[in-house]
Specification:
Gyrase A, domain 2, Rossmann fold, 488 residues, 3 domains, 16 helices, Four Helix Bundle (Hemerythrin (Met), subunit A)
Length: 488
């Protein structure tokens, strides 16, 4: 893609699927002229004569009998995302219609954009740094507020500012070392080995702090997962909607409404997690229900905490408890739902505890770590709640947070999201500094090892340049932008 920036590219930039509005985006020297050929001829003046950036409502002629209302957003270079001429076509979000628009532009001279090619052009044309470009991919991939905030901090240049401070320190030390080399025959000491060690150690401490604060993409992607588990129609979907704040699950008084595993991010204090809503577990012989049950059990083996949802107005299904025991989790949070229907003179907590014990689930008063699946008894936290009224939700969130007490997610709220490439650059820089410190320790004067010291510091600066994007290769750029989605 790097050597073909003179070509005009097109892609559908809105998410896949049906929507009220879809977006087709073009960038390149012929973007405006190509779209102009799709516009109803009665539209005047031609788009090519329109000055500056503007919005224009038009009709597109996709074939002889298909006229499509659309809104065009025209961005003249260099005042666009890619710093090339750009056109964004907003049209009804029917996938066949959007495909037809893109196909028509290709027949007129555009070509399909490669993954990340719009952002790659923004980088190559100086509109974005490499760090900002990678942050775009992080923002697109974000599944939670923590991930989104971290990607935004990367887009703001927070990591680059920290790296540039270290780079400036190392550049100053390198300049003094090279001065010692240039004036080796003069009785001048520009910097002593002891002073050099102090400067290098300060830079190393700062780098170590940055590596500790900057979390990897993989760590952000592995948010802890909580599975809502239980019989059909006990209120799992209503509970998920309440905890996540979005109507992700279908709620109906019909058993078996949820067939697939649905996921949504939730906040538990400073912690974030992924909440999973599973199909109800029963002994149905229906083939679809059986497949949904198998999917739920498979998912249950890969989560951090199980939240067993029970209906306090109904007996607990022994089959569900047998499956919970087979899963052998060290900790179990029980959401005793519909407590608003429970008689006010009694408490459902003790009743549910006795019911669980009657069904053979040994209840412990201790709360072992969530990943301790080898404990002889399950630590059960019972929370009477009402998904309908919101009663008891704070206690349930607290219990789930306690169950995830071993999660590192709580430390990520102020972290910066770095790619593995950037983390490798920091590690290699730290290694070069460590070797330079070792050289200083064995030298009586800086000139004794000035050439080797200068080599190590140049290496360190080069590695830092790969972190900030000042030093790149075509293979590296292709690898970075290949991870983007089409149209971004």
């Amino acid at each position: 893609m790097i050597e073909r920036t003179h070509e005009t590219i097109v892609a559908i930039s809105s998410p896949p699927g049906h929507s009220p509005v879809g977006i087709v985006r073009l960038s390149g020297p012929q973007a405006i002229n190509i779209v102009d050929q799709l516009v109803q001829p009665s539209h005047t003046p031609p788009l090519a004569e329109a000055s500056g950036s503007r919005r224009i409502d038009v009709e597109l002629l996709l074939d002889d009998d298909l006229r499509l209302p659309a809104t065009l957003f025209i961005f003249r270079q260099p005042h666009s995302y890619t710093r090339q001429d750009m056109v964004e076509i907003y049209a009804p979000g029917s996938p066949p219609l959007l495909d037809m628009i893109a196909s028509q532009t290709i027949s007129l001279g555009a070509r399909h954009a490669e993954p990340g090619e719009f952002t790659a052009r923004a980088f190559l044309n100086g509109a974005k740094t490499l760090e900002e470009s990678e942050a775009v991919a992080g923002i697109i991939r974000a599944e939670s507020d923590v991930q989104l905030r971290a990607a935004r901090r990367l887009a703001d240049g927070s990591a680059t500012k920290q790296v540039l401070a270290v780079r400036e320190q190392l550049a100053e030390l390198l300049a003094l070392i090279e001065a010692d080399i240039d004036f080796a025959e003069e009785p001048i000491d520009f910097i002593t080995p002891e002073q050099l060690q102090t400067g290098l150690r300060n830079a190393r401490v700062e780098l170590d702090r940055q590596m500790q604060d900057a979390q990897s993409v993989e760590q952000f992607d592995n948010l802890p997962r909580i599975l809502l588990f239980g019989s059909p129609n006990v209120g799992k979907s209503s509970l998920m909607n309440h905890l996540s704040g979005i109507s992700r699950s279908i709620c109906a008084a019909v058993a078996g409404t949820t067939r697939d595993i649905l996921a949504a991010p939730i906040k538990l204090g400073r912690c974030e997690a992924i909440l999973l809503d599973s199909a109800g577990i029963d002994q149905s012989i229906d083939s679809i229900a059986a497949a949904a049950k198998e999917m739920t059990l498979s998912q249950a083996e890969r989560v951090d905490v199980i939240c067993l949802v029970v209906d306090v107005t109904q007996p607990i299904d022994p089959h569900v408890i047998d499956l919970v025991k087979q899963l052998d989790f060290g900790i179990l949070v029980v959401a005793a739902n519909k407590c608003d229907l429970w008689p006010s003179e009694t408490s459902p907590h003790l009743t549910i505890q006795k019911e669980l014990q009657r069904l053979g689930l040994t209840v412990s008063v201790n709360m072992p770590h969530a990943t301790d699946r080898n404990s002889e008894s399950a630590a059960v936290s019972i929370c009477p709640i009402s998904a309908a009224t919101g009663q008891g939700m704070i206690s349930l969130q607290s219990a789930l947070l306690d169950a995830l007490s071993g999660s590192t997610t709580t430390t990520l709220s102020q972290a910066i999201l770095l790619s593995e490439r950037q983390r490798d650059g920091l590690r290699l820089t730290a290694d070069s500094i460590a070797r330079a410190i070792t050289l200083c320790q064995s030298a009586n004067e800086t000139t004794d090892c000035a050439d080797l010291l200068a080599f190590e510091l140049r290496e360190a600066l080069e590695h830092l340049g790969t972190v900030t994007g000042d030093i790149t290769t075509e293979d590296l750029l292709s690898q970075i932008f290949a991870k983007f989605c089409i149209g971004k």
